[in-house]
Design brief:
- There is one protein chain.
- The protein has an 11-stranded antiparallel sheet with strand order 1-2-3-4-5-6-7-8-9-10-11, with no helix packed on it.
- The protein is built from no helices and 11 strands.
- 0% of the residues lie in helices and 59% in strands.
- The chain has one domain.
- The chain is mainly β.
- It is globular and about 70 Å long.
C-alpha cells in the first residue's frame, strides 16, 4: 500500500491464499487478488489519515470543497463443500467491485458507494449468481457550542441490497440519524430510525437503534 501525488492518490493491493488457520486447511487452490485506489480531486481529502471512523465533516475554520473518488476490486477462488447427500467440493470463482465517492464543504458531507459481487461454480451449465447494493448518505455537523466539546450532527441515508439471485430479497432502508459527538467521532452516541422495505416479502419494518462508540 502507499500514497502518491502529495497524498492525493492512495492505493493498496494484495495476494491472499485463503482463510486457513491452525485448525482448518486452506480453502483455496488459487491466489486471491484485492486492490483499491482513491483519488482526491481537490487536495488531500483525509489530511494524511485513513481513519475508518471519520464520518461527517468536523474540520475547523474555512472548510472549502473537497472530494474523493475510489474503486476496489477483488477476485478469489474457493473450494466449497457440496450440499448433502453429495460429497466432495467444487471450485467457486468470485469477483467483486465497488465504486465510492465522498464530498464535503463547510459542515456538509455526502458519501456514497455501489458494489456488485458475483460467484460461479466450476460446473457445466452453472450460471453466475450476483448480489449488488448501494448506499448514499448526507450529513451536517453543527459547530461547537461555546467552550463545550459537544457537537451535534444530523444525517439521512438510503441503502439497498438485491440478493434475489441468492434466494433472498430486495431490501431498501431509509434512515434518519442524530449524532451527539462528545470528542468528535472518537466518543459519540448515535440515534437512528430506519424504515426497511422488503420487496418480495412485501413488508415494511421500523427499526430504532442507539449506539455508542469509543475509539482509543
Amino acid at each position: 500500500m502507499g500514497t502518491n501525488l502529495d497524498n492525493k492518490l492512495r492505493w493498496s493491493a494484495g495476494l491472499v491464499n485463503g482463510l486457513a488457520n491452525e485448525e482448518n486447511d486452506n480453502d483455496d487452490n488459487e491466489l486471491g487478488f484485492v486492490a483499491s485506489a482513491n483519488l482526491d480531486l481537490m487536495g488531500d481529502y483525509f489530511g494524511g489519515a485513513r481513519e475508518w471512523w471519520s464520518q461527517g465533516d468536523l474540520r475547523d475554520g474555512d472548510r472549502n470543497l473537497m472530494g474523493t473518488i475510489g474503486v476496489g476490486l477483488a477476485k478469489d477462488n474457493n473450494n466449497v463443500a457440496l450440499p448433502a447427500p453429495l460429497t466432495g467440493t467444487v471450485d467457486v470463482e468470485t469477483d467483486a467491485i465497488n465504486v465510492n465517492t465522498a464530498w464535503s464543504v463547510q459542515g456538509f458531507q455526502v458519501i456514497g458507494e455501489y458494489y456488485t459481487a458475483s460467484a460461479q461454480a466450476d460446473v457445466a451449465g452453472a450460471a453466475d449468481v450476483t448480489v449488488d447494493g448501494y448506499y448514499v448518505q448526507g450529513t451536517y455537523a453543527l459547530n461547537k457550542s461555546g467552550d463545550s466539546a459537544l457537537r451535534w450532527a444530523l444525517g439521512l441515508r438510503t441503502s439497498g441490497v438485491d440478493a434475489t439471485e441468492l434466494g433472498g430479497d430486495e431490501t431498501t432502508d431509509v434512515s434518519l440519524v442524530l449524532d451527539a459527538l462528545y470528542q468528535g467521532h472518537n466518543c459519540k452516541t448515535q440515534f437512528e430510525v430506519t424504515q426497511r422495505d422488503r420487496d418480495l416479502a412485501d413488508t415494511t419494518d421500523y427499526i430504532l437503534g442507539v449506539a455508542f462508540q469509543l475509539v482509543f
